[in-house]
C-alpha cells in the first residue's frame, strides 16, 4: 500500500515537472514584442458636428387665386423665370347660380329705379324751363338721376364679374388673370388646364397655382441631435455637401437654431438653418438632400498625432506618450492636447516633429487576420 502511494506521488511530481519545463521552453521560444513607432505630422484639424437636411429657397411664395373657377390656360412651367406682374394662368369662372340670380335681380331693380328717376328728371326739367321750380330743385333731380345711372352701371359690372370674372375697362386687373407677385424662378405649377381651383379667403387657404422663389438665395435646413446642439451657436461657419453634386462644398453661415426640440424616433432633434454664400454659378435645385458640417473649431498646419498613440495615466487621467530613446527603449512624455477630429489630435506641447512615438496598442497579426 505504501509502495503504491509512493509511486503515485512520484508520477504526479514527474508530470508537474514535465509541464513546467514545457511551459518554460515555449516561453523562451516566443519572439520578443517589437514596438513600432510613428512621428507626429503637420495636419489641418477640423472639429465638426454633422447635421442632415435639405436645400430650400430662403423665401418661397405660393401664388393663390382670389376667385374660384377652372384653369383655362397655363402660361408657365417649372424652371421658368418670371418677373412681378407676369401672367401665370387664366381662370374660367364657373358662376354660382344663386349669386348670378341675385346679381340679375340687382340689375332689374336698378333699371326700374333708373327709369323712374328718368321720368322724374324729365318732368322737373319741363317745370324748370317754365319757371315753376327753382334751380336748386332742378339740380337735386339731376343728382338723383345721375346716382340712379351709376347704380345701374355698377349692378351690370357686378353681374359681369360674377359671370366672367371681369368687366369692360378692367381687363388687365381681372380676377381671372393670375399674375406673379414676385420675381424669381417658378419651382412648381401643381395645376393643369381643366383643374378646378378654390379662391383664397378668410376661411380657406385656396388652391396653390404656382410656387416662386429666388434660387440665388438658398438656405440649408436640417436637424441636429440634442447631444450636439449644446456645442453649436449662431454665426458658426458651415460646409454644405449636396448628394447630387459631387466633389463640391458650399459655404454657409449658421443663422438659426430652434429653441425647442422635436422628438423623432426616440431622439430629440433641433432644427437649424444656414444661409448659403454661393461663390460660383453652380445651380442648386430646391429640395436636394444635403449634409452640413458645422465647424466647431479649426487648427491649420498644427502638430498632430494619431489619437490611438495617446495614453492616459490611470490615476491622474492626464495624457502622455512614450518616446523612443534607444533600441526598443521608451521614455514617458506628458503632452498637452488640443482639438481632435476623431483620428488626429492636436499636440500643443510635450513632443516635437522629430520624436518617434511608440505604437503601444498595435494588434496581433493573427488577430487581424481573423
Key words describing this protein structure:
370 residues, alpha+beta, rod-shaped, disordered C terminus
Give a quick summary of the entry.
The chain is α+β, with helices and mostly antiparallel strands and 370 residues long. Helices cover 27% and strands 36% of the residues.
Question: Could you describe the 3D structure shown?
Answer:
27% of the residues lie in helices and 36% in strands. By secondary structure, the protein is α+β, with helices and mostly antiparallel strands. The longest helix is centred in the first third of the chain and has 33 residues, at 97-129. It is rod-shaped, with a radius of gyration of 43 Å. It starts with a helix and ends with a helix.
Q: In order across it, which strands form the biggest sheet?
A: 2-11-15-13-12-16
Q: How many angstroms separate the termini?
A: 54 Å
Tell me roughly what share of residues is in helical segments.
Answer: 25-40%
Mean pLDDT: 84
Number of helices: 5
Main sheet makeup: 6 strands, antiparallel, barrel
Shape from CA axes?
Answer: rod-shaped
Using only C-alpha atoms, the radius of gyration works out to: 43 Å
Low-confidence stretches: 363-370
Content of β-strand: 35-45%
Order of helices and strands: HEEEEEEHHEEEEEHEEEEEEEEEEEH
Judged by helices, strands and strand pairing, the structural class is alpha+beta
Can you count the beta strands?
22
List the helices and strands and how they pair.
Layout: H1 2-29, E1 37-38, E2 41-57, E3 60-63, E4 69-74, E5 81-82, E6 87-92, H2 97-129, H3 135-164, E7 177-179, E8 184-188, E9 196-197, E10 210-213, E11 218-225, H4 226-229, E12 237-242, E13 250-257, E14 262-264, E15 267-276, E16 289-306, E17 311-312, E18 319-326, E19 329-334, E20 336-340, E21 344-349, E22 357-358, H5 365-369
Antiparallel strand pairs: 1-22, 2-11, 2-16, 3-10, 4-6, 4-9, 5-8, 6-7, 8-10, 11-15, 12-13, 12-16, 13-15, 14-15, 16-21, 17-18, 18-19, 20-21
Helix pairs in contact: 2-3
